[in-house]
Each structure stands twice: as C-alpha cells, then as structure tokens.
Amino acid sequence: MKNKKYFFAILMLFLLIVVGCSNETKEEPPEAIVKINDENIETARGTYQWEKKRLLSNTTVIADAAAPFQIAEDMKAKIVEQSSVANVEFNDGSQPQLQAYLWEGEKRGEELPLNQHYITLPSEKGKYVIEINAKWSNGDSSYTFVVEVQ
Predict the structure, then answer these.
(1) For position 53, what pLDDT does the model report?
(2) Which of 6, 31, 86, 106 could form a disulfide with 119 if both were Cys (CB 3.0 to 4.6 A apart)?
C-alpha cells in the first residue's frame, strides 16, 4: 500500500513537470489576415525572426525574404474605395504591436495611420504596396499586401 502511494506521487510529479514544461511555441509567426469591408485580402509573409521555446532550449529562426515591392510583383491588387480601412488580424488570435508603411518604388515610404489593428488606406487613386510589421514577445514578422484605390 505504501509503495502505491509513492508510485502515484512520483507519477503525478512527473506529469506536472512534463505538462508545465511543454510550453513550446510555434515554428514560425502566425499568418496575417487582412480584411477590407469583410473581404479577405491576399497577404504574403516576408522576412521574420522567431524564437522557438523548447523544453530544454530556445532556438531563433531568421528567415530572409524579398523586399515588399518584389513580393508585390506576384500579387494581385485588391480594388478598394478611397480612404478604406483595413482590419489586421492573425490566425492565432494574437495582438502584436503593428506598424504599416507604403512602399514607393523600391523604398519604404510614409507610415500609415493605425488605430488598434485598423489601417487607414490612402485616399488618392493608384496602386499601393503596403507593408505591415508585427512584433510579438518572441519575434517579429513583415507582411505585404497590395491595393488599388479607385
């Protein structure tokens, strides 16, 4: 009887340690979901740095990608109205710190107004490449999408 109690206590301690230490993070940043007027907009993840926390070690992955203007070459622009607002969410429900930028040719241009996770898009007609930078406690990532304001 006494041996069963010890065995049970050791088993419970082992389970608590395993469950408590199995707080592994995902292999890469979550996917961005950009919506304008409840319609999903195609996004592409760019460069990121992501720390993977494991049971006994941490690993940092750095993935380099093309610049947003290059990524945008393979993307179809979503036609939107002037001064539309884009809602940015992530497929894991996280709420990272965000910044958004216009790309002007091959250079990052002005920062776009952002309120919570809502980006106010340009009011002038034209095609725009937009970069979103998201920052979590364990890494950061860049995302690109393209709109055409009409």
Answers:
(1) 83
(2) 86
Domain ranges of the chain: 24-149
> Residue 127 corresponds to which amino acid?
K
Choose the most confident range, by mean pLDDT, from 4-13, 18-27, 115-124: 115-124
Architecture of the domain whose range is 24-149: Sandwich (2.60)
Rounded CA-CA distance 47/141 in Å is 6
Mean pLDDT lowest among 24-33, 63-72, 94-103: 24-33
> Per-residue DSSP letters for 43-59?
-EEEEEEEEEE-SS-EE
* CB 92, CB 33: distance < 8 Å: no
DSSP 98-124: EEEEEEETTEEEEEPPEETTEEEPPSS
* 3-class SS of residue 76: coil
Show the tokens assigned to 33: 């979901």
